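Sequence design from tokenized structure. All designs in this work follow the same two-part layout: the structure record, then the generated sequence. An example of the structure record is given first.
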């Protein structure tokens, strides 16, 4: 018992092999100090995930825009001129391209089969528009109902 002066007296144990009584002592008296590591690491991981998703939501340029009202656009596009909306677009096909103007592309809006023609500016030349690709976009309804994509993000 002199080896562990700070240790508790331990629990008596009978050996199944010798029938001798023995006392079991804790090998590390500081083991309880390391228990906090698991919850701390878990807490840091959860906090990092919360911060990641919060930043993604805060810095989303489309978060304040209303969804694109396809039905209203078809009924009376003039009432929507000058407004901006967020929308999910799925590429159907490209109609054409003109230098310094951009591309005309036919998209389906959301999960519906409502096609719209959108002018994608030359600023978006780094994107490829293959049939079936989906994008989150900011649409602006221009004069005459021309839809212009000011911001596109591939999903």
């Amino acid at each position: 018992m002199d080896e562990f002066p700070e240790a508790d007296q331990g629990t008596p144990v009978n050996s199944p092999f010798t029938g001798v009584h023995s006392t079991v002592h804790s090998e590390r008296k500081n083991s309880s100090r390391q228990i906090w590591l698991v919850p701390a690491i878990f807490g840091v991981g959860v906090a990092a995930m919360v911060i990641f998703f919060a930043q993604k939501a805060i810095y989303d340029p489309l978060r304040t825009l209303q969804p694109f009202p396809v039905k209203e656009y078809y009924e009376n596009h003039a009432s929507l001129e000058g407004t901006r909306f967020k929308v999910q677009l799925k590429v159907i096909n490209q109609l054409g391209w003109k230098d310094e103007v951009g591309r005309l592309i036919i998209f389906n809006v959301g999960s519906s089969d409502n096609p719209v023609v959108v002018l994608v500016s030359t600023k978006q030349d780094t994107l490829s528009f293959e049939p079936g690709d989906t994008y989150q976009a900011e649409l602006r309804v221009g004069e005459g109902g021309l839809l212009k994509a000011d911001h596109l993000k591939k999903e």
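The CA atoms of residues 1 and 65 lie 74 Å apart. We note this feature because it recurs in several other targets discussed in the main text.
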